[in-house]
Amino acid sequence: MSTVRETTTEPTTEAPPVEIRGLHKSFGELEVLKGIDTTVQRGEVVCVIGPSGSGKSTLLRCVNLLEQPTSGQVFIDGEDITDPDCDIDHVRARLGMVFQQFNLFPHLSALENCMLAQRTVLKRSAQEARATAQANLDKVGLGDRGDSHPAKLSGGQQQRVAIARALSMDPELMLFDEPTSALDPELVGDVLAVMRQLATEGMTMMVVTHEMAFAREVADRVIFMDGGVIVEEGPPAQVIGAPQHERTRTFLQRVLDPTNTRAGAEDAAHAARHADEEG
Ligand code: ADP
Ligand code: MG
User: Is the CB of 27 within 6 Å of ligand 1?
Assistant: First the structure.
């Protein structure tokens, strides 16, 4: 077990949940993140917006080390996860991640999907894992669907199971990468409602989204990324309501265009482009 946590008297130290310093990430010749610096405070909801290919997913994936940064540092609760001595599995257990594709195990029921990592990673008893899974399915409005397999659930329901699964690990931070982009428009609302509820309860969240209405209403801070840098960040009323940079204005005009008012249209196009990445 990690000595770090055992010698710390209180898990919620003064350190912020996420601190990113000088983060660079390249894939071969392609530099995708060109120096990202930002800090997420406890209880803060940060929405990351920006055009496709701007590096949003790569940023989130560096936060839980699904991608290894090329340079720079990422601190989770003050712990440098880019340090080779860091016990990343231990850190990851505190991070919930929800992807565009739900990544549920098709052969397991909703309840079993929510129990699995509790059993294998947190070593919880079956009884405790089941109770926690059930409580979180209740929370996302699917308390009566625990026995259903993913194929029997709508996309929106599957995504809510994926959220319940992440919550069942009692995460200190939730990362969402376009959680509603693969959904039919009429199913988006239920998922956003669950996320809004989590935000209200004080969960720390980083959310990559094209849902500008959600970002406006729920985010404490909006980060606009383009070309691997943070172009601007601030309260939603500022970044979405009165953007300072031309690149932000151009992006928002495209997303909020009257002929494209449903953010779902942009999302659907995006989902179609990325459909082949599934699985
Ligand atoms: P966004 O989420 O903003 O659409 P991404 O972070 O997914 O952007 O991707 C940014 C750029 O990095 C894109 O050009 C993408 O093709 C590239 N990229 C992402 N992941 C990889 C990878 N594993 N290997 C090579 N290139 C990648
Ligand atoms: Mg992405």
Answer: yes
